[in-house]
Amino acid sequence: CLDHTAAEIDSLTWQLNEFGQARLIVANPGPAAHLLEYGNRLLIYLDNGLPPWAGFIDPPRGWRYGSVTLTAYSGERLLAHRLTGRNRAFSLATAGAMMTALLKEQAGPRVVEPGYIDLGGWAFSETYHFEELLDVAQSDLLRAAAEFAVVGVLEAGRIRFRLNLYQRRGRDLANVWLLEGHNAVIEPEEQGPIVNEWLTAGAGSGWDDTGRLYSSARDDDSIARFGLRQGPKVFSDAADQTTLNILTENELALSAEPYVAMSVEAINLPPARFADYDVGDGVGIELYSMMGGYRGTRRLVGREFRPAAGVCRVVLV
């Protein structure tokens, strides 16, 4: 807690299925310098509708003329501080069941506890060997089935971190709109690469017909438009055919067409006040000055708040 000293917030970021960062500047901390030690936890409340930001101080930390520039990372990064066991095997378990078990088994003291965990979804098998829990949560297998966030709560004067896991984080919001020229500056960018046929391999050894699992997926409409564009990928953690097929289809769905990412500088005005939407939500976008105009829903995958400018930089895909 930095309530005993003045800290200026330079920026705060939140990301989907990834850790965010905070940059803070403390002028001449003096006797409060012990509050700036690595590992100390932060819970930052904002008065503009943005959600609380929770994390911990870690390098880098800079000193200049007595002032300190701090870097903090959100609770998701704590998952990288704990490992699975060796030969930790799961057989036909959902992502929620896996993460609940791994959080309960982590070396003490626990850095992240189970919060809201959706135990539904499709089940798969996997074996882990000293894997970081963050790598598990971000693996192709789990991200095909679930999304996650780590939140901070204040209990008995201590900041505690809890992992929430969803089949899909957020929801599509019908009445929240970022409107070019009103509450948003919108910069679209068409991105790739385009891959319209995936040839994939799963767990196993060797490359003969029986040595490992294989799958493929193609999009004929994309091939007709852009020509055949093949891509290979090995999913070494896909131990059954159904899982490998799902992962292959997911790759195709993401790559068969170029996608337009929207970088938006948003201000806190209706019909999209900061409190109205969060990471994972689908929000309306109205753009008229480029791309022949666009009106539709895009999903928010990241946001950065810069208090000095009073704006949020958000990324929608």
Please provide a written account of the structure.
The chain is mainly β and 317 residues long. The chain has four domains: 7-75, no CATH class; 78-166, 3-Layer(bab) Sandwich (Phage tail protein beta-alpha-beta fold); 172-191 and 259-316, no CATH class; 197-255. Helices cover 14% and strands 45% of the residues. The chain has helices spanning 95-105, 133-137, 140-145, 220-226, 241-255, and strands at residues 7-15, 21-26, 41-44, 53-64, 67-74, 88-93, 113-117, 124-128, 147-155, 158-166, 172-179, 184-191, 197-204, 212-218, 230-234, 259-266, 282-287, 294-306, 311-316. Strands 1, 2, 3, 4, 5, 11, 12, 16, 17, 18 and 19 form an eleven-stranded mixed beta sheet that branches. The protein is globular. The two termini are 35 Å apart.
Percent of sequence in beta strands = 35-45%
**How would you describe the shape?**
globular
What is the number of helices?
Answer: 5
How many domains comprise the coordinates? 4
Measured as a percent range, the helix fraction is 10-25%
Second CATH tier, the architecture of the largest domain: 3-Layer(bab) Sandwich
Q: Determine the CATH topology of the largest domain.
A: Phage tail protein beta-alpha-beta fold
Poorly predicted ranges (pLDDT <50, ≥5 residues)? none
Structural class: mainly beta
Most strands sheet:
11 strands, mixed
Average pLDDT, all residues? 94
Overview in brief:
The chain is mainly beta and 317 residues long. The protein has helices at residues 95-105, 133-137, 140-145, 220-226, 241-255; strands at residues 7-15, 21-26, 41-44, 53-64, 67-74, 88-93, 113-117, 124-128, 147-155, 158-166, 172-179, 184-191, 197-204, 212-218, 230-234, 259-266, 282-287, 294-306, 311-316.
